[in-house]
Amino acid sequence: MSEKEKNEATNEEVEPTETTEDIAEETVEELTPEELLQAKVEELEDQFLRARAEIANITNRNRNEREQLQKYRSQDLAKKLFPAMDNLERAMATEVSNEQGASLKKGVEMVLESLRHALKEEGIEEIKASGEAFDPNLHQAVQTIPAGDDVAADTIVEVLQKGYKLHDRVLRPAMVIVAQ
Fold first, then answer.
1. What sign does the CA torsion over 102, 106, 111, 116 have?
2. Subunit comment for this entry (predicted)?
């Protein structure tokens, strides 16, 4: 190739390129008023659909929160009643020698039974522990003893304080002694 042909080829290749701004201006200028309105409608439709989806999400979240509150509404009251129930159970464990003590014990038993019934109606149940396998999700080991021939390892030997759960939520773990 001669020198002159090289210069001509170079001149042909180097054409001024349009910038994206120039192209965008031409595109905007080329749109008719109907196309502009259509683009605006599509943008507003998108915003509307997003807003509607957000409202649906908020509604679902609020409904789920209300269901959770309803399901676990008695949790705080039950936690406050547990110490009173423990005291009533200790009162039931005492021995009485006269008839006045026996009638008092009968009254305590009736109160304790009505509390248990009320808690059961609310979905609060006692965690079974004695003789069961130790489960750290349900039980709190406060002491261990060596496992004997009659007791397998990781078995609960004695319950020091009863545990309770509301549906699937543990309100108070059972305090237990575990064989190791």
1. positive
2. Homodimer.
